[in-house]
Design goal:
alpha/beta; 17% strand; single chain
Length: 474
């Protein structure tokens, strides 16, 4: 019997060793992963998009009957329709369709390259990733170098949070001001676009982040930490954006349905010159999940979700909301409507807003979620013009890239979306673009369908685990 037990122990030890080696090997393997079906960049030929109506997102919003000339990925000239051009241009007659700047989604969690492929297929040409992992720096560089087609990627640092309720697979726990300063300096030197702050940071740690980032002209965005809200909400003034209308309800409103307090907070945010990303979509999404349960889940194209991330959601948020009681459902539906009200008050008060969705969380699908957010903002009562500005020029200004993105102006990058009807009248047509122009590359309906097909084959659990492990040891 002892011999059998010894053999079994050796066998189990060998299995554990093999599993450990395989797990450790997933990190370099994930770094080397290169999906063979990524679409290539082909933007060398100049374009002439003729008989087009331009939705510029600047002072003269609609330029009717124009020809847009694009060269080397840049908007070269805006001419009258039908102007003679050289043979080097690819001439595309769009027969009176409407062209506007590509959309921004300012709050996403991209855990797979294919997320950025799918997002682009919906005309979302730029995204702001709100929780950095080492792979995001690689993907951003690959996209900048034109190695594959996907949305432009702007990324936060790894999320800095306190101990309470921290996600060990996605947060860096910071409890000392000196450590916070060290991380800010390190992340700045690595080239991240901005710092991500989270809800449980202590006030001294938060203030150290803000101070050190300010010295480096390194923006900070994220959740206003609860201890900061309790001390003085105005301490959030230096933040580039404050995320989630839900955070306003949970933070300064203290879970109270108080219309007067909402208006007072909106005035305070206006005085702070704050920018808010409402993210109505994700709370509406979980509300529908809690109310309609499996019926709602069955409606979603879950083949686009990364398999490891889906299993994680299944075991956490998915299980929670699918199991919601009737009482909780009623509470969520009430909150959902109130978040729309808060967003409308912010708009009417003149608080700067940008569009974000939180896709990548709770079964939210890249790309289509952005259009869900547009519809929800309209449902909340915001004018179409304001909503589209949130998704274009407002976002570009917040990211400090308005010199090249966010509007149709000569000299800017040609990231554009073409639709059959005027999106200023009804933006629902943006959900099904006739074409997308990415850095001067024309992507017609067949190209967009191919991007979606590619996106339906996300990275494996093994490679995804390698990327998460890389974050943990970094």
């Amino acid at each position: 019997m002892k011999t059998v037990l010894k053999k079994l122990a050796k066998y189990l030890a060998a299995l554990l060793l093999i599993a450990f080696i395989a797990l450790a090997a997933s990190i370099p393997m994930a770094r080397m992963e290169w999906p063979g079906d990524l679409q290539q960049v082909h933007n060398g030929q100049p374009l002439a998009i003729d008989n087009v109506n331009l939705v510029t997102m600047v002072d003269e919003q609609i330029l009717a009957d124009r020809q847009l000339l694009i060269r080397n990925g840049i908007i070269e000239r805006i001419e009258s329709a039908g102007v003679a051009i050289g043979d080097e241009y690819r001439h595309i007659d769009v027969k009176g369709a409407y062209l506007m700047p590509g959309l921004f989604d300012m709050h996403v969690h991209a855990m797979d390259r294919k997320n950025l492929v799918l997002s682009l297929a919906y005309g979302v040409t730029s995204v702001r990733n709100m929780g950095g992992y080492p792979m995001h720096l690689r993907w951003r560089q690959e996209l900048a170098e034109g190695q594959w087609l996907g949305s432009n990627l702007f990324s936060a640092t790894p999320t800095m949070n306190g101990k309470k309720n921290a996600n060990p697979l996605g947060h860096k726990i910071v409890t000392e001001p000196d450590k916070a300063r060290e991380l800010v300096r390190r992340y700045h030197s690595q080239g991240w676009d901005f710092v991500k702050a989270y809800a449980r940071l202590d006030v001294p740690v938060y203030e150290a982040i803000i101070d050190e980032a300010g010295r480096l002209d390194f923006p900070v965005a994220g959740h206003v930490p609860y201890p900061v809200v309790e001390t003085d909400y105005r301490l959030a003034k230096p933040m580039m954006t404050l995320e989630h209308t839900e955070d306003i309800f949970q933070g300064p409103l203290e879970y109270q349905y108080d219309d007067d307090a909402v208006k007072a907070i909106a005035l305070q945010l206006k005085e702070m010159d704050a920018t808010v990303t409402p993210t109505l979509m994700i709370f509406d999404h979980l509300t529908r999940l809690a109310s309609d349960k499996q019926t709602f889940l069955d409606e979603l194209p879950l083949e686009y979700l990364n398999p490891m991330m889906r299993r994680f959601v299944d075991a956490t948020a998915g299980a929670r909301w699918l199991g919601a009681s009737e009482k909780l459902q009623v509470s969520l539906e009430k909150r959902n409507l109130y978040f729309q009200y808060i967003t409308l008050v912010l708009h009417e008060t003149g608080v700067n807003l940008v569009l974000g969705t939180d896709w990548g969380a709770i079964y939210a699908i890249p790309g289509s979620s952005t259009h869900d957010e547009i519809a929800l903002l309209q449902e909340a009562g915001l004018p179409v013009e304001a909503v589209l500005k949130m998704a274009t020029i407002n976002a570009a200004r917040v990211l400090r890239v308005e010199d090249r993105l966010g509007s149709i102006v000569e000299g800017k990058t040609a990231d554009l979306i073409l639709v059959a009807h005027n999106p200023m009248t009804d933006p629902k047509y943006l959900r099904q673009p006739l074409a997308v122009v990415k850095n001067g590359q024309w992507l017609d309906k067949n190209d967009l369908a191919l991007l979606k097909e590619t996106a339906s084959k996300p990275s494996s659990t093994y490679f995804t685990m390698g990327r998460v492990l890389e974050f943990l040891i970094d």
